[in-house]
Specification:
Elements (H helix, E strand, L loop, with lengths): L4 H28 L2 H8 L3 H8 L2 H25 L4 H18 L1 H7 L2 H10 L1 H23 L8 H21 L5 H16 L5
Helix pairs in contact: 1-2, 1-3, 1-4, 3-4, 4-5, 4-7, 4-8, 5-6, 5-9, 5-10, 9-10
Length: 201
C-alpha cells in the first residue's frame, strides 16, 4: 500500500533528524548530542523532534535501532552464506570488523556509554530489534551444534565467545586506535573457532 503524502513527509522528517543526530554525534560527541544541536543541524523544528521521537533519548534510541538492525542483518547474511561452522566464524568476524571500519561514527555510537545508558533505560525497542535479527544467527549456531561442529554450550555463552572478542577489539579501535583491525580479522577467527569448536581444534 503506497504511503500517503503525510506519511511520506513524516518519514522524510524522521530521516532528517536521524541523519542530523549522527552528524552531531560524529562532530561533537556524546556531550554535544542535544536537542538544540540536532534541530539546528537538521533544520527541523523542536516540535517536530518531540512529535516524532518524544525526547533526545527517543531519537538516539531510534538511531541505535536503525543501525543495530543493519549490523545484525549483515552478520546474519555473512554466516548464512558460509558452508561450514569454521568459515561462518571467519565470515562473521570479518563482517563485524568490516562494518566498524566502514561506519566508524555509527560504530562509536553503538559501542558507547550513551548506547548502554539508552539500552538500559529505554531498551525495549533495541531488544526487540536484536531478538528479531538474532534468530538467523542463533539457528545457524544451533544447526552446527547439532552437526557436532560447535560445542554444545548454552546459547548465551556461545554468543559471548563468538562476539565478545570482536566487540572488545572494536571498542578498543574506536576509542584508543591502537589495534590493527586487518590483523584482528586475520587472527581472531581462528582463536574464536578454537573456543567454540566441538573438538577444541
Amino acid at each position: 500500500m503506497p504511503m500517503s503524502p503525510k506519511q511520506h513527509r513524516g518519514e522524510v522528517t524522521s530521516d532528517l533528524l536521524l541523519d542530523a543526530a549522527l552528524r552531531v554525534y560524529a562532530d561533537a560527541g556524546e556531550q554535544g548530542l542535544t536537542v538544540s544541536a540536532v534541530t539546528r543541524a537538521s533544520g527541523v523544528s523542536l516540535g517536530s523532534l518531540y512529535h516524532h521521537f518524544g525526547s533526545i533519548d527517543g531519537l538516539v534510541n531510534a538511531l541505535l535501532t536503525r543501525w543495530l538492525g543493519r549490523l545484525l542483518g549483515e552478520l546474519a547474511d555473512a554466516v548464512g552464506n558460509s558452508h561450514d561452522a569454521r568459515t561462518g566464524v571467519r565470515a562473521l568476524v570479518r563482517a563485524y570488523l568490516g562494518f566498524v571500519q566502514a561506519h566508524p561514527d555509527v560504530s562509536r555510537l553503538l559501542h558507547s556509554s550513551r548506547a548502554d545508558q539508552v539500552g538500559m533505560e529505554q531498551g525495549r525497542e533495541l531488544r526487540d530489534v536484536q531478538e528479531a535479527r538474532m534468530p538467523p544467527l542463533t539457528s545457524w549456531v544451533l544447526r552446527h551444534v547439532e552437526r557436532g561442529e560447535i560445542a554444545p554450550l548454552s546459547p548465551a555463552l556461545l554468543e559471548s565467545l563468538l562476539l565478545g572478542p570482536v566487540v572488545g577489539v572494536s571498542r578498543r579501535w574506536l576509542t584508543l586506535g591502537d589495534v590493527d583491525l586487518d590483523e584482528a580479522a586475520r587472527i581472531l577467527p581462528e582463536r574464536i573457532w578454537r573456543s567454540i569448536s566441538a573438538d577444541g581444534a
